[in-house]
Specification:
about 200 residues; alpha+beta; 3-methyladenine DNA Glycosylase, Chain A; globular; DNA-binding
DNA sequence: CTCTCGATGCACT
DNA sequence: GTGCATCGAGAGA
């Protein structure tokens, strides 16, 4: 499996968010391969995006969002969970794509152990869940996703003729007018369960 | 099935 | 001290 090149991430963050759908998230831990197919993403910008961690100045936490494209930006939230982003931007000073859901492909037994569940649709159906399934913590923060290693993103053989949907981003209160969440329609059952109101906001791209 | 609510650590004001 | 880019349990329908 060949990692996506740096140039893939050196484009408009919203475009990268759409194009990451269907790609393979690859994690090597203790010589074991864990692979998931990305089915839900969200774009986060810089000073143009009040919902982004990079809306204000560069700090210790958000520094990776201001750095090289194609790296893992991982943060800890709600006292319990890690969330995984891929840094991506064109002309703005910062930007990243949050990986919100994945469909388990390989190493499913290990993922089930990591998640303490045997329910397939409960392994990667949420940003905090998929990091737990893949044993991703702040130790992987700033890891290079363009190099074969402990964490990277690879092209998939799947032809991308899937229907793509979009909506407002989940769990934020600012900039709800931006429809920067993207997902593969037929994999909605793998995405996080949404409130009825959020589901009604979803439209076709 | 749906919705509400509390846990929990830490960055930032 | 305040506010989260969340999750799972529990209650109600």
């Amino acid at each position: 499996m060949k990692p996506l090149g740096r140039q893939f991430y050196c484009r408009d963050t919203v475009e990268v968010a759409k194009d990451l759908l269907g790609k393979l998230l690859v994690r090597e831990v203790n010589g074991r391969m864990l692979v998931g197919r990305i089915v839900e993403t969200e774009a986060y910008g810089a000073h143009n995006d009040p919902a982004s961690h990079a809306y204000r100045k560069k700090t210790d936490r958000n520094a990776v969002m201001f750095g090289e494209q194609g790296r893992a930006y991982i943060y800890f939230t709600y006292g319990n969970h890690f969330c995984l982003n891929a840094t991506a931007r064109d002309n703005l000073p910062a930007g990243a794509v949050l990986i919100r859901a994945m469909q388990p492909i390989e190493g499913i037994g290990s993922m089930m152990q990591n998640r303490k569940t045997s329910v397939l649709t409960n392994i990667g159906s949420g940003p905090g869940k998929l990091t737990q399934a893949l044993k991703i913590t702040r130790e992987q923060n700033s890891a290079d996703l363009c190099t074969k290693g402990e964490l990277y993103i690879a092209r998939s053989n799947d032809k991308m003729n899937s229907k793509i949907g979009k909506s407002s981003r989940i769990g934020i209160v600012r900039a709800v007018d931006k429809k920067w969440r993207f997902f593969i329609e037929e994999n909605l059952h793998v995405s996080r369960k949404l409130k009825t109101n959020d589901r009604n906001q979803q439209v076709r791209v």
